[in-house]
């Protein structure tokens, strides 16, 4: 019989590019304003990789990962598996997980990439948790990293999407823990593919191969930039966030008041505030940093979790709820009793 272990987050790290892009700066590129953006999203600034920088999705992930490994008190040679979550890989293929492996000089452990966009870190954490709970691996490096800025339409035409996103990376070392009453208590994953195109980037893709792009490229083709049906996404997000948080609470026989810290995916401050009100949580029970970084997709939860921990807002014994909703549509949650 396979021994059942628990998993815990033993180390956290984050990395944000130095280049700050304010709402006022965006207003010089498109018809928008600081107040317009804040009213709709809560975002005041975000980070973009500088245009003259060689940084990318994998290299940002490496910086966050090294910090997480150091804080876990292990070495890179102790990593048994790399799980890399992103919607913006450095290359079409291979995935960024193996690029991180090479950049960090990690041996021949397996590396896999997760493509679940805003829910990517929750999905990746679930993968890590299952491998550890079955006794297959002891230390799994989970990374969420995104380089959005290079693919955004920074004109008035693209403002409803482009003002939302930022670049950054977060990482966690997920390690074996002997007490099943602590650590990651449960994870819950869902998707609904019928809404796939409502938050998507359709091209370039295998339906638009390179020769076709070169022959017929039109910079005004909306398929080359992210598309979002904002109202539909918002309506679905508030419902699915609430459902999947409730699912985790029910699974673990807990009440909303038992949540010490809710860390929602940083998609829109209005969504987070709606969920906070629905569950009757106080401001000190919810962590938001979207005002500083925008939506960093798969990186948002590990960045926010890392910051909350650094600020002393997550402590041993706390019930920490992670929840996300995004493209796919996909959504998920994880309840952790912090060790």
Question: Summarize this, please?
Answer:
Helix content is 32%, strand content 22%. It has 339 residues and is of the alpha/beta class. The strands form four sheets. It has a five-stranded mixed beta sheet with strand order 1-7-6-4-5, sandwiched between helices. Strands 8-13-12-11 form a four-stranded mixed beta sheet, sandwiched between helices. Strands 2-3 form a two-stranded antiparallel sheet.
| Widest β-sheet, arrangement of strands | 1-7-6-4-5
The CATH class of the largest domain: Alpha Beta
- Overall outline: globular
Structural class: alpha/beta
DSSP helix count? Answer: 11
Q: What is the radius of gyration?
A: 19 Å
How many β-strand runs?
13
Low-confidence stretches: none
Distance between the termini: 26 Å
Instruction: Count up the domains.
Output: 2
Provide the residue-averaged pLDDT.
Answer: 94
- Helix and strand sequence: EEHHEHEHEHEHEEEHEHEHHHEE
CATH H-level superfamily title of the largest domain: Thiolase/Chalcone synthase
What percent of the residues sit in helical stretches (DSSP H or I)?
A: 25-40%
Main beta sheet, described? 5 strands, mixed
Write a structural description.
The protein has two domains: 6-177, Peroxisomal Thiolase, Chain A, domain 1, CATH 3.40.47.10; 183-337, Thiolase/Chalcone synthase (Peroxisomal Thiolase, Chain A, domain 1, 3-Layer(aba) Sandwich), CATH 3.40.47. Helices cover 32% and strands 22% of the residues. The protein has helices at residues 23-26, 34-41, 57-72, 96-104, 120-133, 159-162, 210-216, 230-251, 269-278, 290-293, 300-310; strands spanning 6-15, 20-22, 45-47, 81-85, 111-114, 139-146, 168-177, 183-191, 199-200, 227-228, 261-264, 319-326, 330-337. The strands form four sheets. Strands 1-7-6-4-5 form a five-stranded mixed beta sheet, with helices on both faces. Strands 8-13-12-11 form a four-stranded mixed beta sheet, with helices on both faces. Helix 3 (57-72) crosses helix 4 (96-104) and helix 8 packs parallel to helix 9 (269-278). The protein is globular.
């Amino acid at each position: 019989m396979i021994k059942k272990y628990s998993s815990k987050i033993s180390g956290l790290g984050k990395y944000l590019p130095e280049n700050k892009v304010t709402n006022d700066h965006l207003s010089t590129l498109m018809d928008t304003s600081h107040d317009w953006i804040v009213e709709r999203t809560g975002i005041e600034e975000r980070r973009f990789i500088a245009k003259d920088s060689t940084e990318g999705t994998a290299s940002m992930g490496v910086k966050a990962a090294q910090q997480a490994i150091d804080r876990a008190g292990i070495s890179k040679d102790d990593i048994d598996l790399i799980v890399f979550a992103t919607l913006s890989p450095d290359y079409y293929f291979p995935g960024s997980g193996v690029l991180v492996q090479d950049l960090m000089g990690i041996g021949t452990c397996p590396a896999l990439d997760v493509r679940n966009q805003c829910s990517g870190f929750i999905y990746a954490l679930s993968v890590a948790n299952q491998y550890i709970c079955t006794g297959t691996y002891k230390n799994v490096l989970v990374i969420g990293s995104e380089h959005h800025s290079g693919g955004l339409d920074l004109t008035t035409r693209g403002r409803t999407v482009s003002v939302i996103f930022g670049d950054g990376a977060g990482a966690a070392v997920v390690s074996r823990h002997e007490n099943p009453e602590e650590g990651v208590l449960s994870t819950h994953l869902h998707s609904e593919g019928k809404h796939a195109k409502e938050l998507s980037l359709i091209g370039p893709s295998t339906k638009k191969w390179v020769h076709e792009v070169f022959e017929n490229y039109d910079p005004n083709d909306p398929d080359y930039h992210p598309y979002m049906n904002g109202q539909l996404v918002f309506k679905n997000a508030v419902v699915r966030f609430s459902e999947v948080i409730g699912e985790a609470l029910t699974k673990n026989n807990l009440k909303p008041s038992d949540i010490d810290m809710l860390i929602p995916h940083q998609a829109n401050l209005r969504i987070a505030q709606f969920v906070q009100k629905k569950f009757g949580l106080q401001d000190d029970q919810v962590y938001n940093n979207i005002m500083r970084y925008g939506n960093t997709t798969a990186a948002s939860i590990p960045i926010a979790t890392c910051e909350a921990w650094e600020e002393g807002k997550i402590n041993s014994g706390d019930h920490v709820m992670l929840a996300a909703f995004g493209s796919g549509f996909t959504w998920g949650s994880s309840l952790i009793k912090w060790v």
